[in-house]
Amino acid sequence: VLWITSFNQMMLSSVHQALADSRGIRVVWKNFLFTAAIAVVVTITMTWVGLLVINALLVLPGAAARNLPQYHLVSVLGGVVCGIGGLIVSYYLGTSTGASITLLLALWFFLTLLLKRTR
Question: 0.90 cut: is pTM over it?
Answer without folding.
Answer: no
